[in-house]
Specification:
The protein is of the alpha+beta class. It is about 40% helix and about 20% strand. The protein has two domains: about 190 residues, Ribosomal Protein S5, domain 2 (2-Layer Sandwich), CATH 3.30.230.10; about 160 residues, Alpha-Beta Plaits (2-Layer Sandwich), CATH 3.30.70.890. The chain contains ten helices and 15 strands. The strands form four sheets. A five-stranded mixed β-sheet has the order 1-6-9-7-8, covered by helices on one side. A four-stranded antiparallel β-sheet has the order 2-5-10-11. It has a four-stranded antiparallel β-sheet with strand order 13-14-12-15. Strand 7 and strand 8 form a beta hairpin. It is globular, with a radius of gyration of 21 Å. The two termini are about 40 Å apart. Belongs to the diphosphomevalonate decarboxylase family. This is Diphosphomevalonate decarboxylase. It catalyses: (R)-5-diphosphomevalonate + ATP = isopentenyl diphosphate + ADP + phosphate + CO2.
């Protein structure tokens, strides 16, 4: 029988990167080649929820993802998180002069159950939300204080940004041990409540090349990636933070779309090339530019991570018009849908 302190549940939101992280300077510690900045989405719509139990009777660590048990031993990212959180837990327990029982408890095995309320591994940042919820729950279970974004980063780089709310920057840092490569809140979500996100799921299938493998291939073969890191990202980060502070949608939208396009240009420049967008994604990009031109105003911006699903930013006052247009053009009940979707699932979330 477990008592209350032996079981915790945490949930964490999906974050969508505006300034993209693509390329690691250290594979082992998940250190990024450039800083990135994201927005956390409303947890009611997209979240990972993780429950962790610990007991002295558990003989090994086990994990279930959406009800299906996964391998733990071969999962180096999960192992890295567990190892790091236990190291911090022991260190802090000893510092607090806790009794032997509490110190040994930091090595106790755990059973983890994690669920997403959205498609897993389809470019909807499921691993980011998953690792953030996991690390927050482990931190509570093992009584670890302080910033845990560095631990979440060991699981999935972008997970560190899901540990905080609102607009979050992942500062790349400069230390080789990664201790300064952490997430920092830039502004809270209350800063720009009119900014809304519409998510168009064009495919719920698992991506063919995972982000770790894709990034590695880009680091080895893309000349554009290094140019982007050295000459593009620093200025864009400054321009984006200014646009957010001034709530300047038009400036925000331009940087957002250019960043998405450059990520996918780097993927195209990778050899052999990586293709994450599908034909519907391309149609959505064309729709956004045509619609903004038609309105003589920037009303919608798209961004895509390593997957074909679109994240559309729009101000509250234009949301219902854009959502209904998207649904009309790309929704399942239209003639176009058979061409566009060929039986793939369509779902639009609003956040
Ligand atoms: O954290 P990872 O390893 O899943 O990589 C995420 C990469 C992108 O989603 C494409 C960009 C980003 O900054 O989130």
């Amino acid at each position: 029988k477990l008592d209350e302190s032996d079981m915790v549940t945490f949930s964490a939101p999906v974050n969508i990167a505006i300034i993209k992280y693509w390329g690691k300077s250290c594979q082992k510690l998940n250190l990024p080649m450039n800083s990135s900045l994201s927005l956390n989405l409303n947890q009611d719509h997209l979240q990972a929820k993780t429950t962790i139990a610990t007991s002295s009777t558990f003989i090994k660590d086990r994990i279930w993802l959406n009800g299906k048990e996964q391998d733990v031993e071969g999962n180096t990212r999960l192992q890295a998180c567990l190892k790091e959180i236990r190291r911090l837990a022991r260190l802090q327990a000893v510092k607090r002069n806790e009794d032997v029982h509490r110190v040994t408890r930091c090595s106790q095995k755990v059973h983890i159950s994690s669920r997403n309320n959205f498609p897993t591994a389809a470019g909807l940042a499921s691993s980011a939300a998953g690792y953030a919820a996991l690390v927050a729950a482990l931190g509570q279970l093992y009584r670890v204080d302080g910033d845990l974004s560095g631990v979440a980063r060991c699981g999935s780089g972008s997970a560190c940004r899901s540990m905080l709310g609102g607009f979050v920057e992942w500062v790349k840092g400069g230390k080789s041990d990664g201790t300064d490569s952490i997430a920092q809140q830039f502004v809270g979500e209350e800063h720009w409540p009119e900014l809304r996100v519409l998510i168009v799921v064009t495919s719920a299938q698992t991506k063919a090349v995972g982000s770790t493998e894709g990034m590695q291939r880009s680091v080895e073969t893309s000349a554009l990636l290094q140019h982007r890191v050295d000459n593009v990202v620093p200025d864009r980060m400054k321009a984006l933070t200014d646009a957010i502070l001034n709530k300047d949608f038009s400036a925000f939208a331009e940087i957002c779309m250019k960043e998405s396009n450059q990520l996918h240009a780097v993927c195209q420049d990778t050899f052999p090339p990586l293709r994450y967008l599908n034909n519907v994604s391309e149609q959505i990009i064309r729709f956004v530019h045509a619609y903004n031109e038609h309105c003589s105003d920037t009303r919608v911006a798209y961004t895509f991570d390593a997957g074909p699903n679109a994240f559309l930013f729009v101000l509250e006052r234009h949301l219902s018009e854009v959502a209904s247009l998207i649904y009309k053009i790309f929704g399942p009940a239209t003639d176009n849908a058979t061409d566009f979707f060929r039986g793939e699932r369509f779902k639009a979330y609003q956040s």
